């Protein structure tokens, strides 16, 4: 990354929007394995963009983000008492942290 890219103005999120973008951490076996590779998985809002997710994680947790990958998880079709229903779609963000950075998900935010 050049000096011009580092100082380039990105999206400036409000504190309220930062807390709206990151809904919750994903705690599954696969997400825990990725945590060992300095990748953290979050559930985010469907309208969140990669630059918004990057800025929210960097400012909320005080870490440097190397990359953000997103996946839209489609809701499953389920049956309940003979009637068909559908779970809501949700977005998952896998955030790769720079070397030496870590996020402890067991502690709360300040």
Strand and helix map with partners:
Blueprint: H1 3-7, H2 15-21, E1 22-25, H3 29-35, E2 39-44, H4 50-61, E3 65-73, E4 77-80, E5 83-86, E6 90-97
Antiparallel strand pairs: 1-2, 2-6, 3-6, 4-5
Helix pairs in contact: 2-4
Structure commentary:
The chain has 110 residues and is an alpha+beta fold. The chain has one domain: Alpha-Beta Plaits, CATH 3.30.70. Helix content is 28%, strand content 32%. The protein contains four helices and six strands. It has helices spanning 3-7, 15-21, 29-35, 50-61, and strands spanning 22-25, 39-44, 65-73, 77-80, 83-86, 90-97. The protein has a four-stranded antiparallel beta sheet with strand order 1-2-6-3, with helices on both faces. Strands 4-5 form a two-stranded antiparallel ribbon. α2 (15-21) crosses α4 (50-61). The chain starts with a helix and ends in a 13-residue tail after the last strand. Mean pLDDT is 88; it is low at 1-5.
Relevant terms:
4 helices, globular, Alpha-Beta Plaits, 110 residues, two-stranded antiparallel ribbon, 4-stranded antiparallel beta sheet, alpha+beta
What's the gyration radius in Å?
Answer: 16 Å
Helix-and-strand structural type: alpha+beta
Low-confidence stretches: 1-5
Tell me what portion of residues adopts beta-strand conformation. 25-35%
Order of helices and strands: HHEHEHEEEE
Q: Count of helices?
A: 4
Rough outline: globular
Instruction: Characterize the largest beta sheet: strand count, sense, and whether it forms a barrel.
Output: 4 strands, antiparallel
CATH superfamily: RRM (RNA recognition motif) domain
Q: Classify the fold: give the CATH topology.
A: Alpha-Beta Plaits
pLDDT averaged residue by residue: 88
Q: Indicate how many domains the architecture comprises.
A: 1
Q: In total, how many beta strands?
A: 6
The percentage helix is: 25-40%
Taking the alpha carbons of the first and last residues, their distance comes to 30 Å
The first-level CATH class name? Alpha Beta
Strand order of the largest sheet: 1-2-6-3
- CATH architect. name: 2-Layer Sandwich
